[in-house]
Design a protein that fits this description.
single chain, mainly alpha, MetI-like fold, 14 helices, 70% helix, globular, disordered C terminus
Length: 270
């Protein structure tokens, strides 16, 4: 039994090393001059400099890209939580004509790749005047099938008697959703929030197509411009990558309890 634990910890240690080493290399490279980045790697930085961060913050619109990413990701996450939780609540607790067929259609939309709808979306947004605006990145996918399915599965576990007691007490249907359902499924909402924020924060294709002004770029698109056919600014790329990880890490650490609870909820039968 003991040797199994040793093997397990050895495998986990190796996995942790393979996970940490690329990030450590990015952090150390961000504090090196451009000419020293691809030298033989060392544990400690030989030529320490903050020039990459200074150039990134003062000579590029990185701060605007960071602001764009935060506004878009936070707004998208809030819309996903609102629409998907309401959709999941309707599919879980209401009976209406065509409910099963409509839910099948919603799930079927998960099989449609984003590349198949990107051109129709671009044409539609062009007619509505939404190109080069935040709405072009916030609205698509705000009521996605995965989120609706996830919320439906968790809301099905909410006792119907609890909702009926709210109706008896005079609570409105929206009040039942807001005051009873949402607090009960808080772990699932936390898990969905992290998923939605990461999906929006790391989105590259949509900002690349819908944003024409460089000041409207998000971080992934902005950083991709540091490596081109004629110019390679790896120092700025590493510095921007390190900064872009900080907000994601803060949100994950702040909501890790909800994430773990949301992933394990319903895994054990009583």
């Amino acid at each position: 039994m003991r040797y199994r634990l040793v093997i397990m910890y050895l495998i986990l240690s190796l996995a942790a090393i393979f996970t940490v080493v690329p990030f450590y290399w990015a952090v150390t490279s961000s504090f090196k001059p451009q000419s020293k980045i691809f030298e033989r790697p060392a544990i400690f930085i030989q030529s320490f400099t903050i020039e990459n961060y200074r150039s990134l913050l003062l000579e590029t619109p990185f701060q605007r890209w960071l602001f764009n990413s935060m506004i878009i990701s936070v707004s998208y996450t809030l819309l996903v939580i609102f629409f998907c939780s309401m959709g999941g609540y309707a599919f879980a607790k209401y009976d209406f004509a065509g409910k099963n067929f409509l839910f099948f259609v919603v799930l079927s939309s998960m099989t449609i790749p984003v590349w198949a709808i990107i051109i129709p979306l671009f044409m539609w947004f062009s007619r509505l005047g939404l190109i080069n605006t935040y709405w072009a990145l916030i609205l698509p996918g705000s009521a996605n099938a995965f989120g609706i399915f996830l919320m439906r599965q968790y809301i099905q576990g909410v006792p119907t008697e609890l909702l009926d007691s709210g109706r008896i007490d005079g609570c409105s249907e929206f009040g039942i959703y807001y005051r009873i359902v949402l607090p009960v499924i808080k772990p699932a909402v936390g898990a969905l929030a992290i998923y939605a924020f990461l999906a929006s924060w790391n989105n590259f294709l949509s900002p690349l197509i819908f944003m024409r002004n460089p000041r409207m770029f998000t971080i992934p698109v902005g950083l991709s411009g540091f490596v081109g056919q004629k110019e390679f600014r790896y120092g700025l790329l590493m510095a921007g990558s390190v900064i872009s990880v900080i907000p994601v890490s803060i949100i994950f650490l702040a909501m890790q309890k909800q994430l773990v609870a949301g992933l394990t909820l319903g895994a054990v039968k009583e």
